[in-house]
Amino acid sequence: MRAALAEALLAHPIALAQARIGIVLGRPYWQLPDPEHVTQLACRAAEACFVHDDLRTAPDPTRAFHDLLEHRFLPDWDLSNGPQVRLEQYTLPEDKTCFCLRFPHAFMDAGGGQWFLAELGRYSPPAAAADGKTSTAIGALAPRELPDELAPDDRPLAPLQDYSLFERIKLCRAGFKLGSEFRGLRFAPLAPMPAPPLASQGIVYRSWPAANVRQMRVNADRFAPAGPAPHARYLAACVIRALHALYTERGLHADAYPVSLPLGILDDADNDESPAKEFAGTARPRKDAVPAAARPMPGNYLVAPTLYGRRELVHDRVALGRDLLNQLEHYYAQRGHLAQWAMVYFASWLRVGMYDFVFKRGIGVEPLASGFSYYGQIPRPVRRICGAKVTNLWGTAPLGTPPGMNPIFNKHQGKLNLGLAFNRPAISDELARRFTDLIEREIFSETESPP
């Protein structure tokens, strides 16, 4: 595993980069390793950022696995030191193995993480030795030279490269007005305000087989109005209806339920989770543009429109779905994706202290009822890693802004998976499990019954 990780880091040295701040303007950038030392750094990183736990003899292997998984979550990632990935391997009874790839969102998104796992499979030996050891010593890898330029998958995304400074400023100003028509609606967050300090991250997993996925597709065809990204929009509506039920159970009132929907700014229009290119007002195409969600690129290249599920529409699935579609169409027609990107672009010019002050205090950040994300299987799916057949895949991510719940869906080999990450103690384990149960009920319900 360490040898495969070293090879993947050598193939993509951007993962070894360190975040630095420019002396003159204070703008952050990624500093690549010295070409003369890249092989040594990759080998050293493969040793330092990989950990393996054999839990086959543990009294409760599943509990031990989850405890380690949650214990190793770090709320803050030191971007100033590479590598920007960490890998954990857990060996469980019945010949089961679980891998956990951790990375900062400033480096890549969930699709990029799936892509990096596929790269690990690409550089893995065909099968592990019987004694679990690899025949290749990590330190014995031949010295490599960095290519003259980064591979297309590793190049920074620059969707504003064809826009003048004046146009970028106009876009940035427009970004502060996004969703302004909904900001007068009353909203009471589930988590206490201000949110208590993060103690740990909890995770709830669900996985549904192909038969359930077929029912989800039938429901999406029935309740999601015709248009791009029907499955993503249908699942977003299910999350909103589940939130309404959760609020009702706890005696809370909200005029609307704001939910974030992260999207790649240059998504692949062929994937059912990617509406960007289907709507009016999309970015000017780049000649070398490739699906953004399938590559680990420096910089947070996601934009995230906030969708508002209005209370008066929650009981009508079709009306709610149509309203969400209208919100997305309006977002792209107003070039909201470029406006959000311009805000991130100009924020990157702030010095670190100013950046932390603005974003860690929630200035300019809308309150959310929940996060939400959905990404499909990448064109080069994860099949095997070091001889281990990959049978399932989950993606999770914490949500820094209250309430700290973030359900992430993905497809893998015909299955639909959900990983719900939540922040303790703001969100209790009981609340997270109940939210997950309500989401499951909404996804597969065949009736128009109110949530």
Please, could you describe this protein's structure?
The chain is an alpha+beta fold. The protein is built from eleven helices and 15 strands. Strands 6-15-14-11 form a four-stranded mixed beta sheet. A three-stranded mixed beta sheet has the order 3-4-5. A two-stranded antiparallel sheet has the order 1-2. α3 (61-71) links the parallel β3 (50-54) and β4. α1 (2-11) packs across α2, α1 (2-11) crosses α4 and α6 packs across α7. The radius of gyration is 22 Å and the shape is globular.
- Strand segment count: 15
The SS-based structural class is alpha+beta
What is the second-level CATH architecture of the largest domain?
2-Layer Sandwich
**Name of the CATH first level of the largest domain:** Alpha Beta
The major pleated sheet works out as: 4 strands, mixed
- How confident overall, as mean pLDDT? 80
Order of helices and strands: HEEHEHEEHHEHHEEEEHHHEEEEEH
Global outline: globular
Query: Strand arrangement, largest sheet?
Result: 6-15-14-11
